[in-house]
UniProtKB/TrEMBL annotation:
Single GO BP term: DNA repair
Name by which UniProt lists this protein: Helix-turn-helix domain-containing protein
Keywords: DNA-binding, Transcription, Transcription regulation
Lineage: Bacteria, Bacillati, Actinomycetota, Actinomycetes, Pseudonocardiales
Domain HTH araC/xylS-type: 1-94
InterPro entries per the UniProt record, alphabetical: AlkA_N (IPR010316), AlkA_N_sf (IPR037046), AraC_XylS_family_regulators (IPR050204), DNA_glycosylase (IPR011257), HhH_base_excis_C (IPR023170), Homeodomain-like_sf (IPR009057), HTH_AraC (IPR018060), HTH_AraC-typ_CS (IPR018062)
A Pfam family this chain is assigned to: AlkA_N
Claim: DNA-binding is one of the keywords in the record: yes
Organism whose genome encodes this protein: Actinosynnema pretiosum subsp. pretiosum
SUPFAM superfamilies referenced in this protein's UniProt entry, alphabetically: DNA-glycosylase (SSF48150), Homeodomain-like (SSF46689), TATA-box binding protein-like (SSF55945)
Length: 392
């Protein structure tokens, strides 16, 4: 939540309220676990964002200070000098600010290699909702709903980084947008640790060796993920294991056209709308939803409008309660993708059982669950390796 900018926008009291603790409890827990309080962690986050922008973009320093969340240029300069021992100008290395589209920035998103791009971008593209997402010119593009405005992002895989082209209506949303893009692509994973653990199972080893660095695609919006999962289940086309959460593009595109907010595409591509908010979907004519999904969707949307959070750092018990109407497959997919659970696993999913049987693993849910204990805490990655054998 701190990485997502909650402290910058709502202060430590806002963070404490979201977590269900007092301010003192939050400060004590963070100090005990991480050695720093929430304000210090938020300050370090702003400094890292500023350094990234100084080193990889040519934005003016005043714009970097605002985009990184600093209250003033002076605070920006002092923090950068204190934490990095260099001035912002020294970090930049002499680049000058170019002209271009207002609110646009191009930067590199680093990752630990290897990264198997086909298994990462494939599910995102296969489940893309027209108007909200697209694959164009070798990049995954989509619209973003952000705390202070909206944006459009283009993410293009490179050998040692992902090229991130962002256009925002409010530059203060930049750190949040970067954080959500990293989560969507699982760029903070440690593939050496994950793959090393999974290769210990002889049945999984050939899959890992064939596609090292396979990631678990995440999401930029937990509420959107849950809604799309239920739309897919409601049409009979969804599978939680697909990690695309079974989105049925036809129904999702329909609700986007009816309830989504129209936005321009700065690149002249096919992006036209933001995905609808829970309130907009709740106000939608139920006839526009697949009949089997109407009741569970109404229950989910009511919970979301009431304040339930399905974003990174959300309360897992509260999220499970909000999704209890969705069934285990959807629950598993949403918790894995939205809350970033690396151990999410659903042995009841037919696609998972079929893939497991194809490499000689048990096909009954109970036996597969027992075998999967050896894959902990990386069962979500094991699922991706299994499903990588078949279209998802």
């Amino acid at each position: 939540m701190i990485v997502d900018g909650v402290v910058d926008r709502e202060g430590v009291p806002g963070l404490a309220t979201r977590l269900g603790y007092s301010v003192r409890q939050v400060e004590r827990r963070l100090l005990a676990e991480l050695g720093s309080g929430p304000l210090a962690i938020a300050r370090a986050r702003r400094a890292r964002t500023a350094r990234l922008l100084a080193e990889t973009t040519a934005l003016p320093m005043t714009e970097i200070a605002v985009a990184a969340g600093f209250a003033s240029v002076r605070a920006f300069n002092e923090t950068v000098r204190e934490l990095f021992g260099r001035s912002p100008t020294d970090l930049r290395g002499g680049r000058r600010a170019p002209g271009g589209v207002p609110g646009a920035v191009v930067l590199r998103l680093p990752f630990r290699g290897p990264l198997h791009a086909p298994s990462l971008f494939g599910p995102l593209v296969a489940n893309a909702v027209p108007g909200v997402e697209e694959w164009r010119d070798g990049a995954y593009r989509r619209t973003l709903r952000l705390p202070r405005g909206h944006g459009v992002v283009s993410l293009r895989p490179r050998a040692d980084h992902v090229e991130c082209d962002l256009t925002l209506t409010d530059s203060r949303d930049l750190p949040v947008a970067i954080s959500r893009c990293r989560r969507a692509l699982d760029l903070d994973a440690d593939p050496a640790e994950v793959d090393g653990a999974l290769r210990a199972d002889p049945a999984l080893r050939p899959l890992v060796d064939a596609a090292p660095g396979t990631r678990v695609p995440g999401v930029v919006d937990g509420a959107e993920c849950a809604v799309r999962a239920l739309l897919g289940e409601g049409t009979g086309t969804g599978t939680g294991a697909a990690m695309g959460a079974g989105a049925n593009a036809g129904w999702a595109h329909r609700v986007v056209r009816e309830a989504g907010e129209a936005v321009p595409d700065p690149a002249g591509g096919g992006l036209t709308h933001l995905f609808p908010t829970p309130q907009a979907l709740l106000d939608l004519d139920p006839a526009l939803l697949p009949p089997p999904a109407r009741a569970p969707l109404t229950a989910l949307l009511t919970a979301l409008v009431g304040g339930v959070d399905l974003g990174a750092g959300a309360d897992r018990a509260e999220a499970r309660s909000a999704l209890r109407c969705a069934g285990e497959r959807v629950l598993d997919a949403v918790l894995t993708r939205s809350l970033g659970d690396p151990d999410g696993f659903c042995p009841d999913d037919p696609a998972v059982r079929a893939a497991a049987g194809g490499i000689g693993l048990p096909v009954t849910a109970a036996a597969l669950a027992d075998r999967s204990r050896a894959w902990r805490p990386w069962r979500a990655y094991a699922t991706r390796y299994l499903l990588g054998r078949t279209p998802t």
